[in-house]
Structure to design on (517 residues):
């Protein structure tokens, strides 16, 4: 094709070729010229070619000028004795196939504008193929969806070579349609399974792309009377699985279980667990099937263990899962590092949630209160201002633990019976001990900490103290609060004896050479 220089010339030339092909079958070979521009190294020319292909094959699909059915080999049809119309439709269907393959390749183009346009064009073809199927229905009323074309789109989003998260964001607008959402889940399950099983070491980019796509899928909480379909149908049949929320939940569950059964990078464990309680568990057909993943996640350690316990807690309380080691695992997470890590606020927010039930046994609550009190001895002030009210709230919720601070007829303790090395809170003997650590903290150097620890000297008020505003408290904020405090009008003692000598001794060597006034 002879083209003028620049994208404007390419647009005009492509426009003329497009009109010729659509006007006469005798000009069909001009399609090769249009497809050739798809290989251009100029992004703007490539975009013009994509738009031309979109208009060309969109029109051919609507006019029914592409072969319908199992596509035969091109050479066999061209050499045969079939009619000219059949040959034309088979030949043009092969050109359409070549166009779609090139559009899939353009999803990896360096220019995001080209990627975005290629994706939009492929989705347009998905819609048109659904309305004007290129396969024959097996029976009347059969639900037809261009699965192969759509799976290639999903496969392009799940690239193992580069980050496609921006492209996934662009694709996300299509997920509001029931049919696109349903077939995305089916296609993603298949692609993840094939890639993960086919690679000895799956690239990190693939896992990140897969998580971006899977986490973009959101199901409605309950069945709605209306359906939103991307591929338009004259009427919907209740025999189609795609119309039922129950089937969507099954597909959603298979998708996530298929993804989470593989060994994921540590960073992805956190991302999955953060959305687990709100975006995954409520939509599963059988939430208890997540127990294996959550147990594996807990064994990773650190923040991942805590987030895994959040998911287990939901399964226990909302889905009647029996998990007797839950509080023992939570107890094991209490070590000096919890006051210094970046997830401290989330840890204590969740721990407060886990220990909120008034039906927990007294020995268990006492063990947590005692362990936190012991850890408080070496905690920084900003953490103490949060953990001390936290401990007092435990005592408010569970009056039976009051013996930890007030045992009027109890024996004098020569040694603390609490065993800090015991991993089982039931055997730690915390209920036999006392919170002497809080009394020690009443002499803390920071006055706010001393005041917070002194609360146990009097009867605790019935309403709990909200620890939410204190969870994010930092050392800088504590310092700023101290600077903003207004000094009282009371007299401040001043130095009235003049210093004698550098080190305070009049006869030392420094005093002979330096005189302080």
């Amino acid at each position: 094709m002879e083209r003028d220089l620049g994208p404007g010339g390419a647009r005009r030339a492509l426009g003329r070729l497009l009109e010729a092909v659509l006007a006469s079958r005798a000009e069909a070979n001009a399609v090769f010229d249009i497809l050739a521009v798809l290989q251009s190294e100029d992004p703007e020319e490539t975009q013009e070619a994509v738009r031309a292909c979109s208009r060309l094959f969109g029109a051919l699909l609507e006019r029914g000028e592409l072969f319908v059915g199992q596509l035969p080999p091109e050479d066999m049809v061209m050499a045969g004795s079939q009619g000219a119309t059949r040959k034309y439709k088979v030949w043009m269907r092969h050109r359409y196939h070549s166009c779609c393959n090139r559009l899939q390749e353009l999803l990896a183009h360096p220019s995001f504008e080209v990627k975005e346009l290629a994706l939009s064009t492929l989705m347009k073809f998905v819609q048109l193929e659904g309305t004007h199927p290129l396969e024959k229905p097996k029976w009347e009323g059969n639900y037809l969806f261009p699965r192969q074309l759509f799976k290639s789109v999903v496969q392009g989003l799940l690239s193992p070579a580069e980050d496609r998260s921006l492209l996934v964001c662009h694709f996300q607008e299509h997920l509001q349609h029931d049919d696109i959402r349903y077939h995305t889940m089916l296609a993603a399950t298949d692609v993840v399974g094939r890639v993960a099983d086919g690679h000895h070491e799956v690239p990190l980019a693939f896992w990140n792309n897969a998580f971006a796509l899977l986490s973009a899928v959101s199901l409605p909480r309950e069945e709605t009377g209306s359906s939103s379909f991307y591929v338009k149908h004259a009427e919907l049949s209740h025999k189609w699985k795609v119309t039922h929320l129950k089937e969507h939940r099954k597909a959603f569950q298979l998708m996530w279980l298929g993804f989470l059964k593989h060994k994921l990078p540590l960073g992805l464990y956190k991302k999955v667990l953060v959305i687990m309680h709100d975006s995954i568990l409520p939509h599963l057909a059988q939430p208890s099937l997540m127990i294996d993943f959550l147990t594996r996640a807990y064994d990773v350690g650190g923040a991942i263990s805590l987030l895994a316990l959040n998911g287990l807690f939901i399964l226990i309380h909302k889905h009647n899962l029996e998990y007797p080691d839950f509080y023992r695992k939570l107890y094991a997470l209490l070590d000096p590092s919890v006051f210094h890590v970046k997830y401290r606020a989330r840890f204590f927010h969740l721990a407060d949630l886990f220990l909120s039930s008034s039906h927990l046994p007294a020995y268990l609550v006492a063990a947590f209160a005692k362990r936190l009190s012991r850890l408080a001895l070496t905690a920084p002030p900003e953490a103490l201002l949060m953990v001390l009210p936290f401990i007092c709230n435990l005592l408010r919720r569970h009056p039976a633990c009051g013996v930890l601070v007030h045992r009027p007829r109890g024996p004098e303790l020569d040694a603390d019976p609490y065993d800090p090395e015991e991993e089982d809170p039931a055997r730690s003997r915390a209920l036999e001990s006392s919170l002497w650590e809080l009394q020690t903290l009443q002499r803390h150097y920071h006055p706010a900490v001393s005041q917070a620890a002194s609360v146990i000297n009097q009867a605790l008020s019935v309403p709990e103290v909200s620890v939410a505003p204190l969870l994010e408290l930092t050392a800088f904020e504590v310092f700023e609060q101290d600077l903003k405090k207004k000094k009282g009008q009371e007299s401040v003692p001043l130095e009235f004896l003049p210093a004698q000598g550098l080190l305070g001794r009049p006869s030392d060597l420094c005093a002979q050479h330096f005189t302080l006034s």
Observations:
- Confidence is low (pLDDT under 50) at residues 1-5.
